[in-house]
Design brief:
Elements: H1 8-58, H2 78-81, H3 103-110, H4 120-123, E1 132-138, E2 143-149, E3 152-153, H5 154-165, E4 197-198
Antiparallel strand pairs: 1-2, 3-4
């Protein structure tokens, strides 16, 4: 009995089906990534709204212990943040140290703007499994209050920058790339390599 192989038509149909499956997987991944970036942007706006709500109630920003308009925590550059960790049950005080990363979040929780029974390690976490930090950044001349989002893939940072500022440029606008470099110059966004992470 003679064995029969696949015909060209059958092979073509199999290849088309495989192409459709791969296309669906890639499209699904893109949709998931877009949803994550939008969720991060919404969370970022939520933290900003919480800070302004606190300001309306208290006349100062959360974590601004001496009421000078500058949030006391000054560890926003990425290289410095690595030495700070959130305390799940932070003490309510400790305004004396600029290294108190918990103070702004504690203030928001005390005023019931954020959930009071949720630890900072959970409240400050964002969709890319890293975290937000609230504090100030000194550019060599001025202190800027800011919300930093650490460990964001470059493609997501560009999407958020384009959505908020209208352009993917980490050197101008409200959204800035902060890489741990002190000084007034901000680096541009890196390429879209999945391993590139920015703050």
């Amino acid at each position: 009995m003679k064995e029969r192989g696949f015909t060209l038509v059958e092979l073509a149909i199999v290849l088309v089906i495989i192409g459709i499956i791969i296309g669906a997987i890639l499209k699904g991944t893109e949709l998931i990534n877009n949803a994550k970036a939008k969720r991060l942007q919404n969370d970022l706006r939520g933290v900003e709204a919480a800070m302004w709500t606190f300001f309306d109630r208290m006349g100062r920003f959360p974590g601004d212990c001496n009421n000078d308009g500058v949030i006391d925590f000054g560890g926003l550059p990425a290289t410095a943040i690595l030495s700070f960790t959130y305390d799940s049950n932070p003490s309510p005080g400790d305004c004396s140290s600029p290294s108190n990363i918990d103070k702004p979040w504690f203030d928001l929780r005390v005023q019931r703007i954020l959930p009071t029974n949720t630890p900072n390690t959970v409240v400050a976490k964002h969709t890319f499994s890293q975290f937000f930090a609230i504090g100030h950044y000194y550019n060599g001349t001025y202190n800027f209050n800011a919300i930093a989002a650490y460990g964001i893939p470059a493609w997501a940072a560009k999407m958020i920058d384009t959505s908020i500022d209208g352009t993917a440029n980490g050197t101008i606008g409200k959204v800035r790339r902060l890489d741990g470099a002190f000084g007034s110059t901000f680096p541009a966004w890196p390429d879209d390599n999945a391993n590139d992470q920015v703050v």
